[in-house]
Specification:
The complex is a heterodimer of chains A (321) and B (654). With 321 residues, chain A is of the alpha/beta class. Chain A has 13 helices and eleven strands. Chain A folds into two domains: 224 residues, P-loop containing nucleotide triphosphate hydrolases (Rossmann fold, 3-Layer(aba) Sandwich); 94 residues, Helicase, Ruva Protein, domain 3 (Orthogonal Bundle), CATH 1.10.8.80. In chain A, the strands form four sheets. Chain A has a five-stranded parallel sheet. A two-stranded antiparallel sheet of chain A has the order 3-4. Chain B is an alpha+beta fold and 654 residues long. Chain B contains 24 helices and 21 strands. The N and C termini of chain B lie far apart (83 Å). The chains are: A alpha/beta (321), B alpha+beta (654).
Chain lengths: 321, 654
């Protein structure tokens, strides 16, 4: 099996974190059936130190995916249910006056967990949304003039209902950009749905699963993932893709440099998970849809309406150098 | 009011290229432009560069407008005109410099590069030397390179831009040559740009005062070049007749304006063998045509022989011209001269140079005959303390007196003038001929170069029964000057007093080779005017060439060339070179018989291959994985070797 060249430099030594990563992947696939690709993407997103946006209809397992990620990766977990009356203080926390000490004391909000699930993020007001997004971006929270570092590793999984549902405030494009990836889960196939229906309850299963990783191991893995070898032909390929998104008449807004950086980082992490010797075009293609999909805006007269269609079109139109 | 921010330094890499291109194009103009143009250009360039480096702000609009107005007024004041090459190029140069001060982005720099190209081309309106072409090409290449560097979004190495630029120029070269050959040339084109008349050309003038020729003697500029059909005449016979001066006012000699002298040619009695040759005359802006003494036949249109056997052309020689002449070095002129004409050629103002007149009359009486008198005067120059020098002392109101009795130092014009005055004082008709004497053979090109430094003045005297004949009093003082030419005289030590060094042998050869190249350049490139073009067209088989036919040919050729070059480019196009692994992989996909689709990754392709041709799926997986490792992995050597053997195995499978 080809070895990632950076494993030797891992602080924990040997293959241990990598084996643990494989175990984590396996556990996740046991809980969430038939979603190997999505789980790989979610892991890649995490390894690339990005935040994840899951967009789908209710009941397709968004929450369970987030919960399992936290559990399996050994991260502290908090869930924030976004509602229309959610206030920024409900997210970041408040300062409370302590009579016994005569001082204000900061009471950290749910955002201070290593993995935060922001459920149905588009149901809250933009004000509440931006409180979360700022925390995601800065990895710190300022309350009453004091800055509080968020824990590390820090990972936000936000879920979103399709924006045409009633009572939603869709995230604007500039804020969508904060998410490294946006994935959809979709319905399970017949076989998997049957397994789901006949098997044990997923929530129960979740409590029984042992964490496969520690936060330290995860940090080391993140470091290694960022160092996966990348060659000139691959950069050519990424540039060709990015250029195509900027020049294609089907696309109104192409990928920004931040977008191409995100693409490389995600492809590296994906290559790392797949144990590739370097970043392959397959890695780029695997992550392209979820990294670029929410960053591209189709032209109004384009035949490609959904992000998935548009991404597929880009991948099919650019030859691999 | 919002405070304007400084530059962001984004032009820091491209600005030096723009400045370089501008400098390249302005440089050939600067020597002709007033010094303040150079100062403005350098100042604005340095200012702009500093603005970018220090992130200063660009000057505000009102300041730029004031500067532009000042520059415009400056050009107007310096040239007293706004049209013409001089003011035009000055305006372009200063406006380009000022444009720098409002250059904010790449687009502005493109405008400046346009101006550069225009300036480079306009330098051809000034001079078209042999080195102009390489300089021009280098300038265009530099500008192109700058252009390419600015328009390419990817980072490109300088060498690469340079190569692309060179290639683009190479592709356009055939078009350039076709245009040059076929674009119809008109004798006096209606688009003619007024030629800069303020820059004087050196050469002989219509009058001769003391000091005129000695100033020329320092000029190494070529007056004309001569190719002889046979042997060149010996140095003592290389007198190039130009114009004849016959009116003396006590100080300077003048001649007639060029006008046809009826019967002047009939006065020539030829003797001996004719010499036939071709002359390429540099522009003089005068009417006189130089030819070996005495010209007998010539082929230059609208050229006639004036009263004193000098050749003159109706239009002044504004451009370099070519003509062939047949001359008779041995000749006799006008045996008969009427009494009144004899009297005319002996006129001198009676109240000037009185000492000379007295001396001449005394010597004439002592001599007895005119011939003897002439010999005595020449002997006087030879035997007495007369010196041939380029730096004679200035002479006053009676220059001949002062020269003959006091300074005794002079150049050919002093001797010729003194001699002619003495002849006239003794009643012998005499006149002064201005022209060139000598000329050196260029061993590299088998032709003769006559330089401004060869300018010479000599006299002709008329004796009954002998007619006009040439007497060169300079020969009496410095015979080397005549026998060996200017170079010989210089080598003989007289030159040492001229302050010139004898040219060393290799320098001489280099100079001569350079001149030979220039001569060819003039002959083949610059002389390609309406006449030569017509002849060339006929040689190509065009009947009665006119501009319509040439234009039609040109359009046809240009279309054909553009077609050919495009086809060549299309044939030459190769997809960007792939590395070794990619080539091996390509070999594999070809041998597999199914081409990968656009955007299909190797892994998907391998899956498809396995579905469609299950018998090779093992190969496909192995080769794909090796290929990915070799091409995208960190170390390529081992997978490369394995890939090579795997592909070879696959291709050679039964």
């Amino acid at each position: 099996m080809p070895q990632g060249n950076t494993l030797e430099s891992l602080p924990l030594g040997g293959d241990k974190p990598k084996v643990a990563l494989d175990n984590a992947k396996r556990s996740l696939n046991n809980i969430i059936l038939g979603k190997e690709a999505e789980i790989s993407l979610a892991l890649a997103c995490l390894l690339a130190r990005g935040h994840l946006l899951i967009e789908d209809l209710p009941g397709l397992g968004k929450t369970i995916l987030a919960q399992s990620l936290a559990r399996v990766l050994g991260l502290s977990f908090q869930r924030i249910q976004f509602t229309s009356d959610l206030l920024p203080a409900d997210i970041v926390g408040v300062s409370i006056f302590r009579q016994e000490t005569g001082q204000f004391e900061f009471q950290p909000g749910p955002v201070f967990a290593q993995l935060v699930l922001a459920d149905e993020v588009n149901r809250a007001t933009p004000k509440a949304q931006s409180a979360l997004l700022e925390a995601m971006e800065e990895r710190q929270v300022s309350v009453d003039g004091r800055t509080h570092e968020l824990p590390s590793p820090y990972f936000v999984v936000a879920t979103q209902n399709p924006s045409d549902q009633i009572g939603t405030f869709p995230l604007p494009e500039s804020q969508l950009d904060r998410f490294l990836m946006r994935i959809e889960l979709g319905y399970p196939n017949e076989e998997n749905e049957r397994a789901l229906l006949t098997g044990t309850d997923r929530r129960e299963m979740l409590t029984e699963v042992a964490p496969a990783l520690t936060p330290d191991m995860l940090a080391a893995l993140q470091k290694s993932a960022a160092k996966v070898h990348i060659t000139d032909p691959l950069i050519d390929y990424v540039q060709a893709l990015v250029r195509f998104t900027r020049e294609s008449p089907d696309i109104e807004i192409g990928l920004s440099p931040r977008g191409s950086l995100a693409l490389i980082a995600a492809a590296r992490a994906h290559s790392f998970i797949e144990h590739h010797s370097g970043v392959f075009p397959d890695d780029v293609q695997a992550v392209f849809g979820s990294v670029a999909g929410h960053r591209l805006k189709p032209a109004s007269n384009s035949a490609y309406r959904t992000p998935a269609e548009l991404s597929r079109h880009v991948l099919d139109s650019v030859s691999i150098p | 009011m919002s405070k304007r921010t400084g530059t962001d330094g984004s032009l820091l890499t491209s600005l030096p290229w723009t400045l370089g291109a501008l400098t390249f194009s302005v440089l050939p103009h600067l020597q002709f432009l007033p010094i303040w143009v150079t100062v403005t250009f350098l100042g604005c360039s340095a200012w702009r560069m500093q603005v970018e480096r220090k992130r200063w702000r660009l000057p505000p609009a009102w300041l730029r407008i004031i500067l532009a107005l000042m520059c415009f007024i400056g050009v107007l004041a310096s040239f007293e005109a706004v049209s013409g090459v001089g003011p035009g190029s000055a305006l372009l140069a200063v406006m380009a410099a000022l444009k720098l001060l409002e250059t904010k982005q790449r687009r502005d720099q493109f405008v400046l590069l346009f101006i550069s190209i225009f300036l480079i081309m306009s330098s051809l309106l000034r001079e078209q030397y042999l080195w102009s072409l390489p300089y021009l090409l280098a300038g265009v290449l530099f500008t192109m390179t700058a252009w390419l560097r600015m328009s390419d979004s990817r980072p490109v190495s300088v060498g690469q831009s340079l190569r692309t630029g060179t290639r683009m120029i190479a592709y356009s070269a055939p078009l350039m040559i076709a245009m040059w050959i076929f674009f119809p040339r008109i004798a006096t084109p209606f688009w003619a740009v007024p030629i800069d008349t303020s820059s004087a050309t050196s050469g002989l003038s219509d009058r001769m005062s003391p000091g005129d020729i000695s100033s020329l003697s320092l000029s190494d500029a070529v007056a004309f070049r001569v190719t002889f059909d046979g042997e060149a005449p010996p140095p003592s016979k290389r007198y190039w007749r130009g114009l004849v001066l016959h009116r003396f006012n006590g100080r300077s000699w003048t001649g007639n304006d060029p006008s046809m002298g009826s019967g002047a040619r009939r006065e020539i009695e030829t003797d001996g063998e004719p010499v036939s040759y071709q002359v390429t005359l540099e522009p003089t802006r005068q009417h006189w045509i130089f030819a070996l003494d005495v010209p007998y036949e010539w082929n230059l249109s609208r050229t006639y022989m004036a009263r004193q056997q000098q050749l003159a052309r109706m239009q002044p020689v504004d451009q370099r011209i070519n003509y062939s002449v047949v001359s008779y070095p041995d000749f006799r002129l006008s045996n008969d001269l009427s009494k009144s004409t004899q009297e005319y050629y002996t006129r001198i103002p009676p109240n000037s140079n009185t000492r000379t007149l007295a001396l001449a009359r005394k010597m004439r009486q002592e001599a007895g005959s005119s011939e003897e008198f002439i010999n005595r005067v020449l002997r006087k120059f030879n035997a007495e303390e007369y010196y041939y020098t380029l730096q004679p002392p200035p002479l006053g109101r009676n220059p001949v007196d002062q020269f003959l009795f006091d300074s005794k130092r002079g150049f050919c014009e002093h001797y010729a003038s003194a001699f002619a005055v003495m002849m006239r004082a003794a009643g012998i008709p005499s006149r002064i001929v201005l022209g060139y004497q000598g000329g050196e053979m260029n061993p590299m090109g088998k032709y003769m170069i006559v330089r401004q430094a060869d300018a010479h003045a000599w006299t002709e005297v008329w004796l009954p029964g002998r007619g006009w004949y040439r007497v060169d009093p300079t020969a009496a003082v410095a015979p080397e000057r005549i026998e060996e030419g200017r170079y010989g005289a210089m080598l003989d030590g007289i030159g040492a007093s001229w302050g010139l060094e004898a040219p060393s042998q290799w320098l001489y050869r280099v100079t001569m080779t350079w001149d030979a190249m220039n001569a060819k350049w003039n002959e083949w490139i610059l002389a390609y005017g309406p006449d030569n073009q017509g002849r060339f067209m006929e040689w190509l088989g065009m009947d009665e060439p006119d501009w319509r036919k040439m234009m039609l040919t040109l359009v046809t050729i240009v279309v054909a060339l553009v077609g050919i070059i495009s086809v060549l480019l299309m044939l030459r196009y190769r997809p960007p070179p792939k590395d070794h692994a990619a080539r091996l992989y390509q070999k594999f996909t070809r041998a597999a018989g199914i081409e990968p689709e656009q955007g299909e990754t190797p892994l998907t392709y391998a899956l498809r291959l396995g579905d469609e041709k299950s018998e090779i799926s093992g190969f496909a997986n192995e080769i794909t994985s090796l290929y990915l490792d070799a091409r995208y992995g960190p170390s390529a050597t081992l997978p490369m070797q394995q890939l090579r053997s795997a592909v070879t195995q696959f291709v050679q499978r039964p």
